[in-house]
Amino acid sequence: MGSLQMAALEGGSKLELESESLVSSSSFPREKYSFHEAPQVTLYVRNRVLNSIKTVVFSSKINLLMPFGPLAMLANKLFNSQGWVFLFSLLGIVPLAERLGYTTEQLACFTGPTVGGLLNATFGNATELIISIYAMKRGMVRVVQQSLLGSILSNMLLVLGCAFFSGGIVFSNREQVFNKASATVDSGLLLMAVMGLLFPAVLHSTGTELHIGKSALALSRFTSCVMLVAYASYLVFQLRNQNNQYVPVGENQAESPTEGSSNDEEGPEISMWESIIWLSILTSWISILSEYLVNAIEGASKDLKLPVAFISVILLPIVGNAAEHAAAIMFAMKDKLDISLGVAIGSSTQISMFGIPFCVVIGWIMGIPLDLDFQLFETATLFITVLVVTFMLQDGTSNYLKGLMLILCYLIVAASFFVHMDPSRMDPSLVGIVVLQRVNPVNLDSDAIFEEWICLRLRNEESDVTQRLLNLKQSYFTCGFRVSQAFVSLFNKF
């Protein structure tokens, strides 16, 4: 009897350990169940699963948009309208991106503040990276570049602006403060990213490449590796200074009356393992819809009469940044502006220092010539945006006026891309004018101009325009350019 009792006790203890490992969490009390209470354990696990589904799927009103995901798949099979497929996919990704941010926040409750901020930035940008990878697989290099650029602009202007504005409205009687040292580090990284994008664009735009079509690509790949090393160093710096990140600036701030709100922090609503499982499910579902979204971009541009550049820079990033947008506003309204900055500026830093170089390296592996030459217009837009945001962050305070200014700046950027003609989609005759402007009129060489013209088209990955250019006879260009040379010589004589 004693041995049987010992065996029963051992079996019961094993069952206890297994049940604890399945449902244990720092936010839920651990209960011990005997061998005869196994059905209760099963019932408890089932209730936890149902409660997790209820919390993640049915707790947010934005989840009413989830049916648009299956509708996009249905529209792709039944209808021939790429515009509807694009809109349904776009709307279907919005709640998934928001829920991805929610589950990331739940997982961040079990980590430190720095790791939590990095998790928010990582999975908040997962949507953009997934869309970029699918676009690269289809050879849509400009869509990849513009969507990543738009993500940076959206985070720095729209997301941060809405956070400053909403926080300033709630706390209109005073200025909100944030960690100026952390903002300075992020601003420095953003300026480094601008440097990495500026040199290939200027090198190509000025026509000073040593090897046309190759030098900018080689420089981009080298710069991308350097930027990845810099971002890794930034992560190490953050993790080693964990106690100084996303917290009030100094001792004077620690005595402010608003700090008491930190004691009212809400605990996690789902366990750590539930968060990890939901992250996997949501990421997979976003990947499926991203494929439909990317495949419908060009068709939607024609159906909706919108430029591809506007769709890539404005519409796609707004969907991908839904999680950051909601989180930044929520934390700003709770007077936790450091976390809002960690989400908005941290996400921009990760896209610029990790997302873009990562895509360049992945394209290198896949044999896709993705470089850091984002064209002069896009690079100048990013440079001016970083300067504006750096100026806004330099004093370590925020108010609703700063937020409104950032939002208005984003509207200007959106309007600019609405009327912007992407160089890769310009008419061949316009490209010829650009080429003529880049060549010394005294030493016009028709063969060199023709080769450079073709290289320009090849660099921009426009197969239809490239094929038309290649089919034109070189003698046609030679005749035209010699006539131009004659006019130039005649003009020089006078």
TrEMBL record:
Q: Name one GO molecular function term.
A: calcium:proton antiporter activity
Database matches in InterPro entries: CaH_exchang, CAX-like, NaCa_Exmemb, NCX_ion-bd_dom_sf
Q: How does it sit in the membrane?
A: Multi-pass membrane protein
Chief location: membrane
What subcellular locations does the record give?
Vacuole membrane
Keyword list (alphabetical) reads: Antiport, Calcium, Calcium transport, Ion transport, Membrane, Transmembrane, Transmembrane helix, Transport, Vacuole
Write out the transmembrane intervals: 78-97, 117-136, 148-171, 183-203, 215-237, 276-294, 306-333, 339-364, 376-394, 400-419
In this chain the Sodium/calcium exchanger membrane region domain maps to 84-239, 275-417
Pfam families, per database record: Na_Ca_ex
Q: In its UniProt record, which GO terms are filed under biological process?
A: intracellular calcium ion homeostasis
Q: Name one GO cellular component term.
A: plant-type vacuole membrane
State the family named in the UniProt similarity comment for this chain: Belongs to the Ca(2+):cation antiporter (CaCA) (TC 2.A.19) family. Cation/proton exchanger (CAX) subfamily.
Functional description taken from the UniProt entry: Vacuolar cation/proton exchanger (CAX). Translocates Ca(2+) and other metal ions into vacuoles using the proton gradient formed by H(+)-ATPase and H(+)-pyrophosphatase.
- What PANTHER family does the record tag this protein with? VACUOLAR CALCIUM ION TRANSPORTER (PTHR31503), VACUOLAR CATION_PROTON EXCHANGER (PTHR31503:SF49)
The protein's name in its UniProt record: Vacuolar cation/proton exchanger
